[in-house]
Amino acid sequence: MADVPFTCRCGGVKGTLHNVGWGNHARCFCQSCRAADIHTGDPDPGDGGITVFQTTPDKITFETGQNKLVCFSFGPKNLLRWQAECCGALLFNTLRTPHVPFAALRTSRIPEPDRLGPVRSRGFIPDKNGRHRHEGMRHLVLGMIGRSLFARLTGRWKQTPFFDLGTSRPVAEVRVLPEGARHDILK
Ligand SMILES: [Zn+2]
Ligand SMILES: [Zn+2]
Description:
33% strand; globular; Metal Binding Protein, Guanine Nucleotide Exchange Factor, Chain A; binds zinc ion; 18% helix; alpha+beta; nine-stranded mixed β-sheet
């Protein structure tokens, strides 16, 4: 299965996403993803959503700059959003624990995103009533559970660039942005 390179904006962090047939290409319309793009210096994606490639952390390796990963979250319980310290580029989302092996790579960091294949899931699509709906979630959820479970059963979950398994803590200190930061960014 194909391996696809990724890079931050300046080239200080470079690596490879392995085995793209294993993952899921998804578009997320949620306000947190939008705010994360703006906060890290990407253009405002507006209502169009952002795309990520969801996989397990063992499918991510670094050629250079792994020690430049820094992370933040909107509030104390939300996803960890990982940036390159060199240029601020947003690279990954993970959960807050290594025990559920999940990582999503922001596809704007992939020079050849066509190699990921089409988007198969869409999350948090706003509707007219101010609610949200999702499409392709069966694919997303079953894929995520299947991949996590496989990584757990095989021990591959221990191959993660994001956590220190001795302590189960992230390798970088989490900068927790105050509640309301997201709102301030989007207004
Ligand atoms: Zn989102
Ligand atoms: Zn950089």
